Automatic annotation (TrEMBL):
Taxonomic lineage of the native organism: Eukaryota, Sar, Stramenopiles, Ochrophyta, Bacillariophyta
Annotated segments matching region Disordered: 1-45, 342-370
Name of this chain's protein: AAA+ ATPase domain-containing protein
Species, as recorded: Ditylum brightwellii
Residue stretches making up the AAA+ ATPase domain: 105-241
Any GO molecular function: ATP binding
Length: 370
């Protein structure tokens, strides 16, 4: 059955479609169908009639269950980014009656920064906090070797998302889909890009439902200018600071036997300067293997309860074989792009309202005195 949320049951919406939905072989129009497949269009909701049923099924397979309980509290650090997203995105999606006109939330959000910093988790948390259906789509899922299939898939994606609203469409590595236009760009790629931008514009019009498109990228500087402008909010997701790294390390270790004390944990958080969340996970994984290496050949016969706990020494050994995955030169590129195009956080500015006006008044008084 075609899943739906927040809408009354309209009867037999859609039977589970059989047959291949892949992109490597295109079914012939004369391909035989069994049962009532010839009348499947009648079982589609009105908003989806006329769309390719196999493409609808492909989109269904990309849906991540909105019941997955990932909240902003599950994401260590990034306080400003999380609060900004909550105010600009989640609240408008939960209270569309309140956020109308100029208060209407953005229909496009770009999360950019080094890899392994939690961009995907933020997308899932947005869907959970706003009670939205979460679509996780890779750029490769929106491409097809068949001319025109990619554009149809893009249209189907946005139609299904609007039907399932409120919806969050998360597209990872969006730079590969919306890369800068080049003279030698093939026509199929250009058409998919144009169709995506048209559909993204359409999400901001009335009658299209509450659909938020979140693009995540590690290469924001490669985005097409037109695409960048359509993502009105562009948030930099940085590497974790020392306090956040300590929280991440504690979280990763909490279900594993260890004897790392508070002083050693703080030392590790300092010694992992420049590590991403993914780097920290890799570090913990390597440190967790330390007790096994310590046992040597005896590890094949030891009972799980007799394996030594993870210690600070194991982390020191793991650190000797690791370096941050993000180079300083790459960080400089992110910081420069954020300075030029990033959306500045307004978290906490509410308490300072009027400060600029007060400064202006003081300047006016000084002018009058002169």
């Amino acid at each position: 059955m075609f899943p739906q949320r927040g809408r009354p049951n309209k009867g037999g919406l859609m039977k589970r479609i059989g047959g291949g939905g892949g992109t490597t072989s295109r079914p012939s129009s004369s391909h035989s169908r069994s049962g009532n497949d010839n009348n499947d269009d009648d079982e589609l909701p009105e908003a989806l009639r006329g769309l390719d049923k196999e493409l609808i099924e492909k989109i269904q397979n990309e849906i991540v269950d909105s019941g997955e309980s990932i909240t902003f509290h599950d994401i260590a650090g990034l306080a400003d980014a999380k609060q900004t997203v909550l105010e600009l995105v989640c609240w408008p999606m939960k209270r569309p009656d309140l956020f109308t006109g100029l208060r209407r939330g953005p229909n496009g959000l770009l999360l950019f920064g080094p890899p392994g910093t939690g961009k995907t988790l933020i997308g899932k948390a947005i869907a959970h906090e706003s009670g939205a259906t979460f679509f996780s789509i890779s750029s490769s899922s929106l491409t097809s070797k068949w001319i025109g299939e990619g554009e149809k898939l893009v249209r189907t994606l946005f139609a299904v998302a609007a039907y399932r609203e409120p919806a969050v469409v998360f597209i990872d590595e969006i730079d590969s889909l919306l890369t800068q236009r080049k003279a030698d760009e093939n026509e199929a790629s250009r058409r998919i890009k144009t169709e995506f931008l048209v559909q993204l514009d359409g999400t901001g019009t009335s009658g299209r439902g509450r659909v938020l498109v979140i693009g995540a990228t590690n290469r924001p500087h490669e985005l097409d200018d037109a695409a960048r402008r359509r993502f009105v909010k562009r948030l930099y997701i940085p590497l974790p600071e020392a306090p956040d790294r300590e929280i991440l390390l504690r979280t990763l270790l909490e279900k594993n036997s260890n004897v790392v004390n508070n002083r050693e944990m703080k030392k590790l958080s300092v010694d992992t300067e420049g590590f991403s969340g993914a780097d920290l996970k890799a570090l913990c994984t390597d440190a967790a293997l330390g007790p096994i290496r310590q046992l040597g050949a005896r590890a094949l016969d030891v009972a799980p309860g007799d394996v030594p706990p993870i210690s600070y020494r194991h982390f020191r050994q793991a650190l000797r074989g690791m370096n941050p995955s993000v180079a300083q030169a790459d960080l400089d590129v992110y910081l420069e792009w954020n300075k030029t195009y990033g959306s500045k956080s307004l978290v906490g500015d509410g308490d300072d309202m009027g400060t600029e006006d007060d400064d202006d008044d003081e300047e006016d008084e000084s002018d009058e005195e002169r």
